[in-house]
Write a structure and sequence with these properties.
Layout lengths: L1 H10 L5 H4 L44 H67 L1 H61 L1
Length: 194
């Protein structure tokens, strides 16, 4: 219906026909030759009920002001219907989208409330971190010292193990030398006795 009304408005030009017809007043719609109007031909023929003069010549065609008024009225009603339909469409769309907007608004509000809570908790935790930075630094230092001590202990253990191995090898070589010396001494003692 809105399309039909729009096409009707468009086909009539959308302008006011009343202004082009001299205001569209009822005075212009009075028929020529009515009892109130003067007879242009000057005939004294009696008038009939409808206001037309009865003359011997052909009857005059009625004025077109009635048609123009009808067109203007049709255009105005079509324009009013079109505007009403447009308003109804906008109201329907607004009502339809308002439901979705309300849901999104509630969701956004909840998210912002949560984000504010999380931001607050994050700031508290950050402040606690800043307040305990000296203790954290001391803890890091203690861990470094412990690692250093552990490495030095491992190095000492390795050195001790290597020195023990070296001492064991040295003792073994010394024991072998002694045995060889004893054998030589026995061989020499056996050679002297012979």
């Amino acid at each position: 219906m809105a399309k039909m009304s729009a096409s009707m408005v468009h086909s009539t030009g959308g302008g006011s026909l009343a202004s082009s017809t001299g205001g569209g007043s009822l005075a212009s719609s009075k028929r020529e030759g009515s009892p109130a109007s003067s007879n242009k031909e000057g005939s004294t023929a009696p008038s009939n009920k409808e206001g037309y003069t009865a003359s011997t010549s052909s009857p005059k065609r009625p004025d077109t002001a009635g048609t123009e008024l009808l067109l203007v009225t049709d255009r105005r009603t079509a324009s009013a219907k079109y505007l009403a339909a447009q308003r109804a469409e906008k109201a329907y769309k607004a009502k339809k989208r308002t439901a979705g907007v309300a849901k999104h608004r509630v969701d956004a509000k909840a998210h912002f409330r949560q984000s504010a809570h999380h931001l607050n908790e994050g700031m508290k935790s950050s402040w606690r971190i800043v307040a305990t930075l000296p203790w954290m630094a001391r803890g890091w230092k203690e861990r470094r010292v412990e690692k250093k001590e552990l490495k030095s202990r491992e190095k000492e253990m390795e050195k001790k193990r290597k020195s023990e191995e070296r001492i064991a090898r040295q003792a073994e070589t010394d024991a072998e030398k002694e045995r060889e010396n004893e054998k030589e001494v026995e061989v020499e003692a056996a050679g002297i006795e012979k």
